[in-house]
Design a protein that fits this description.
35% helix; 4 domains; alpha+beta; 16 strands; 11 helices; three-stranded mixed β-sheet
Length: 345
């Protein structure tokens, strides 16, 4: 929760600032930072960036506005303290999502990185993704910004817009249409199969397919499903609770039945009626539902002892509702992709 990450970060910053103060007071010029700092994983984890800032005597401040939503894995949101000092590598994300406001307008297409063995996939996001959200992922935004959120620029150039309008002899095409066209095309089964070898060693190349609007419309539908997955309808699944056990929503660790038609949610609830085509919508080596089952469980970090608990005190039914929504998103995505496969590249 946001309160948990706030507590953890305030404790970390307090520990860090104490160490900075002690460093500035010590007189041994030969002292190495590695030998000086306090190693207590339950209070602070020392990155090379953090050590370098300590060596410069730079103090840190806690800012609650830096607590942001992120996508840790597909359809798995998490809270993030987004700060250059405490994030070892922020890459270009400060120019993609410099503020919470930009999450309401910017969209980013994420694909897996070059040289990775996993099957190709793409997913559009509107919050900061983890770098391994897609394996060694590459992200392509619609907008970029200065790090203070100003100077918004479209990432699709006017030249590219003119190129598409000229090729298709259609001045109604917009940059957002091109963005959705690309997203639709990246889901085309024949495209993925035909260029499978290329997609392992280089970034996707985008051909100008004959049916621009069919791809753009499909991409727009997929974008709505994937970006707004938490607002989608729930698939009509079957909740089977045990008569002799009080119904609880808390999750420890879910698992699929052998036939993949049911999810053992917890000791009091089993969810049935999962359509087989749910597992046809895949992101890498896993289906979207597999990602949810794998990620929404209680984990304890062995080094720090910090507990990652996905259960929400303010919304006890969030996870069980999410399952229904991800099943809906999966089946709907498969339906869109099936129509795509008839389109010529």
């Amino acid at each position: 929760s946001q309160s948990d990450i706030a507590d953890n970060m305030q404790r970390t910053i307090e520990t860090y600032n104490e160490q900075v103060f002690k460093w500035t007071q010590q007189t041994d010029k030969q002292m190495k930072v590695d030998d000086f700092v306090l190693y207590e994983e339950n209070k602070i984890s020392w990155s090379e960036t953090l050590k370098a800032n300590l060596k410069r005597g730079k103090f840190a401040e806690f800012d609650r506005n830096q607590i942001r939503q992120s996508l840790y894995r597909p359809f798995t949101k998490s809270n993030l303290f987004f700060d250059r000092m405490f994030n070892e590598r922020v890459y270009v994300f400060p120019s993609l999502f410099p503020s919470a406001k930009t999450e309401t307008e910017n969209k980013v297409i994420c694909v897996k990185g070059i040289g990775m063995s996993q099957p190709f996939f793409a997913l559009m996001v509107s919050v900061i993704p983890d770098v391994q959200f897609t394996p060694n992922g590459q992200c392509f935004p619609f907008y970029t910004y200065n790090e203070d959120g100003t100077n918004r620029k479209e990432n699709i150039t006017d030249w590219a817009l003119n190129h598409y309008q000229t090729h298709y002899q259609d001045n109604q095409i917009t940059k957002w249409d091109i963005f959705h066209y690309v997203y639709g095309l990246l889901h085309h089964p024949v495209y993925r199969e035909k260029y499978a070898a290329n997609l392992k060693r280089e970034l996707p190349r985008i051909p100008l397919a004959p049916d621009f609007w069919d791809f753009a419309d499909a991409g727009k539908k997929l974008a709505d499903l994937h970006l707004n997955y938490e607002q989608q309808p729930e698939s009509p699944l079957i909740w089977m609770d045990k008569a002799d056990t009080p119904l609880e929503w808390r999750v420890e660790k879910m698992r699929l039945s052998r036939d993949k038609r049911q999810i053992i949610y917890n000791d009091s609830l089993t969810i049935g009626g999962i359509p087989p085509e749910t597992f046809d919508y895949r992101l890498g080596n896993r289906s979207a539902l597999d990602w949810v089952i794998d990620q929404y469980r209680i984990k304890v970090d062995k080094r720090s002892g910090i507990v990652n608990d996905p259960n929400r005190l303010d919304d006890e039914e969030y996870i069980v509702r999410l399952i229904g929504r991800v099943v809906f998103v999966s089946v709907s995505s498969v339906g869109v992709v099936l129509k795509l496969q008839d389109l010529t590249l």
